[in-house]
Amino acid sequence: MRFALFGDIHANLEALEAVLEDASQMGVTNYACLGDIVGYNADPAACLEIVRGMKCPTVKGNHDEEAAANTSLDNMNSVAAAALEWTRRQLSADQQQWLKRLQMVRQVADFTLVHSTLDQPQNWDYVSNRFDALANFSYQFTPICFHGHTHVPRIYMKTDNKAVEVAAELIEVEARAKYFINVGSVGQPRDGDSRACYVIYDPEQRQMVFRRVDYDIAKAQAKIIAAGLPQMLADRLGEGR
Ligand code: ZN
């Protein structure tokens, strides 16, 4: 079995298709989605239908929750709020219902999926350093937990009650360690690399590898402009910010 862990797709169809194509070429047999399927970019319904059709374990992201609600968006920044208002109008009642029913946490094989963090996942807290990661580890009962939310790929590792951040593209999984892995973002990377990002995990080989995939950024940007979404959302795809 080889798993592809992918999330923060954010309605970027070109990036999603490129990632799924890469995963299939890499011999991936199973998929798991870390949430934020919609929001920001121009193809929410198409991306939702692809992920729904895959029938893979999927957890809910904060944009999925907001896109399926009719609550006020006043507490969000104006760009995210504008995109979510637009997104709500693109999704059918049935599609919103599917988003609403997504679970916050799922366990698959020897790993857990959560969009933000395992301590109070409904608060959508951001894990930005090893101290934030340490709080998560207290609630992590599987050797590995995959997450997203910051759109920045990161590896946090816990051994002997200490959490450290590791920089690597390939991880050889150690038996006595715990891992909290941010798989990066398919549809809106923010680490300065504009390519789509996801992780492949092979439990038998005990290896995880980060993949970066080129996709048609210009096409995704043109759709954002044509939809009347904020220009800044198109610009940031080119910058990977
Ligand atoms: Zn996100």
In brief:
The chain is of the alpha/beta class and 241 residues long. The protein has helices spanning 13-25, 44-54, 62-67, 78-90, 93-100, 130-137, 217-226, 231-239; strands at residues 3-6, 30-33, 105-108, 111-114, 144-147, 154-159, 162-166, 170-172, 178-182, 196-202, 207-213.
Protein traits:
six-stranded mixed sheet; binds zinc ion; five-stranded mixed sheet; 8 helices; alpha/beta; Purple Acid Phosphatase, chain A, domain 2; 241 residues
Protein described:
The radius of gyration is 17 Å and the shape is globular. A 6-stranded mixed sheet has the order 3-4-5-9-6-7, with helices on one face. Strands 2-1-10-11-8 form a 5-stranded mixed sheet. It has a single domain, classed as Purple Acid Phosphatase, chain A, domain 2, CATH 3.60.21. The protein is α/β, with parallel strands linked by helices and 241 residues long. It is 32% helix and 22% strand. The model has no long low-confidence stretch (mean pLDDT 96). Bound molecules: zinc ion. The site of zinc ion has 7 residues, from loops.
What is the radius of gyration computed over CA atoms, rounded to a whole number of angstroms?
Answer: 17 Å
CATH superfamily heading: Metallo-dependent phosphatases
For the record, the CATH class is: Alpha Beta
Note the overall shape: globular
The SS-based structural class is: alpha/beta
Widest sheet: strand ordering: 3-4-5-9-6-7
Distinct compounds present = zinc ion
Indicate the low-confidence ranges by residue numbers.
none
Mean pLDDT: 96
Percentage of residues in helical conformation: 25-40%
Largest sheet: 6 strands, mixed
Strand fraction: 15-25%
Overall tally of domains: 1
Named at the architecture level, the CATH assignment is: 4-Layer Sandwich
Number of helices, counting only DSSP H or I runs of 4 residues or more: 8
What name is given to the CATH topology? Purple Acid Phosphatase, chain A, domain 2
The H-and-E topology, N to C, reads as EHEHHHHEEHEEEEEEEHH
The counted number of beta strands is: 11
* Span of the ends, CA to CA: 33 Å
